[in-house]
Amino acid sequence: MLSIIADLYSPLLALCGVYYLRFAMTKSFTIAFAAGYLYAYGFAFIEQYFGWWQSMEANFSSHTVAVAVIVFALLSVNVKVGGYAFVSMLAYGFVMTQLDYHSWFDILTTIIVCLPCWLLFFVVNRKTSSV
């Protein structure tokens, strides 16, 4: 049952993200969203090369990256919805730990790496709102 939840979480979060972000998706926010994913997966690529997480006997969580960018975009647009999404991401982390996909160290350090995405979305959303 937990593996089904893990498999369905990312697509369901993406659908919720599309629904709640549909009005915020200006040209600059869309570019920021793409840049957020490029940053996060670019970091994953660099991490794969250098093996920082492996040197700590851990894994960089691509599962967490996929959802963290959406969660941070939601947080920058709607704090209440983003807060629920953040809690759901932590619940997803619990599921991943129960399935031995990742450890809490993997998940939390990956979230920390993705924090610049939140700042990017916040700045772009603030500039778009003030125009």
Radius of gyration: 15 Å
- Net shape: globular
The helix-and-strand class reads mainly alpha
N-end to C-end Cα span: 47 Å
**SSE series:** HHHHHH
Kindly state the number of beta strands. 0
Helix content: over 70%
Number of domain modules: 1
Mean pLDDT, rounded to whole units?
91
Strand percentage: under 5%
Biggest sheet layout:
none
Unreliable runs = none
- Count the DSSP helices: 6
Describe, in plain words, how this protein is organized in 3D.
The protein is an all-alpha fold and 131 residues long. The protein has one domain (2-130). Helix content is 85%, strand content 0%. It contains six helices and no strands. It has helices at 2-21, 27-50, 52-55, 62-77, 79-98, 104-130. Helix 1 (2-21) packs parallel to helix 4 (62-77), helix 4 (62-77) runs antiparallel to helix 5 (79-98) and helix 4 (62-77) packs parallel to helix 6. The radius of gyration is 15 Å and the shape is globular. It starts with a helix and ends with a helix. The model has no long low-confidence stretch (mean pLDDT 91).
Give a concise summary.
By secondary structure, the chain is mainly α. It has helices at residues 2-21, 27-50, 52-55, 62-77, 79-98, 104-130.
